[in-house]
């Protein structure tokens, strides 16, 4: 087993992309992030590494602070012994992680070993499922229409983004930071709305893309407007729109929210992997 850390992001991308593309939909988070490395220079504190065994990739590691470490696992190669050795190497190298996210089985092993080796507490922050969609099912749409968000919606969508981040156990975000990010999203034409009586009632975002797919994220409906089918209509129409340019869509769900999981399956999304987000304290 060998832990190889990369400061040259170009070399890292060349090394890991062929491996990650073998399970493109499941690895959409890592692939989407390294895709940005081709377009922009990543921050100096971004962490990129691989674990190799017998000249094969056993695991990729990527962290963009302050976010969690992301693991992508080669289940044919990874072993508990190898995971223990990996964690011990990371500890020796002085690494610190706020948490970890990835395929459930091996991410839980990593977290358990990390807690043992660092005397930190590991706690599940969110149990997730990754879904894939290749064709949108026919569903009963709620009243209203689908549209691209514009800057006139910016103040409201900034508030929605803050609420979304708090609801989904993401790192807290200030109203100023949310405002800046939302303005950029709107300029990129990546945020879409469901409108009822010309009022925004739900949003969803075109997020990171991979070679053949694209992720749907930031799905949000205010509490007082939930249960009316607005999110279903918004996600269905956004997915249909994205499938004009991509072979498939992916999204993550919180397993603690059975309503959203049911909604996505009715639209046509199928589960492909259990994922877990674990925090260290």
Describe this structure in words.
The protein has 281 residues and is α+β, with helices and mostly antiparallel strands. The chain folds into two domains: 2-120, Aminopeptidase (3-Layer(aba) Sandwich); 133-273, Aminopeptidase. It is 36% helix and 32% strand. Strands 1-2-3-4-5-12-6-11-10-9-8-7 form a twelve-stranded mixed sheet, with helices on both faces. The model has no long low-confidence stretch (mean pLDDT 95).
What's the short story on this structure?
It is built from eight helices and twelve strands.
Structural class: alpha+beta
Across the major sheet, the strand order is 1-2-3-4-5-12-6-11-10-9-8-7
Order of helices and strands: EHHEEEHEHEEHHEEEHEHE
Number of strands: 12
Helical amount: 25-40%
CATH topology label of the largest domain: Aminopeptidase
Characterize the main sheet.
Answer: 12 strands, mixed
CATH superfamily of the largest domain: Gcn5-related N-acetyltransferase (GNAT)
List the total number of helices.
8
Low-confidence stretches: none
Q: Give the CATH level 1 class of the largest domain.
A: Alpha Beta
* Architecture per CATH nomenclature, i.e. the level-2 architecture of the largest domain: 3-Layer(aba) Sandwich
Key terms for this structure?
single chain; about 280 residues; alpha+beta; Aminopeptidase; 2 domains; twelve-stranded mixed beta sheet; 8 helices; 12 strands
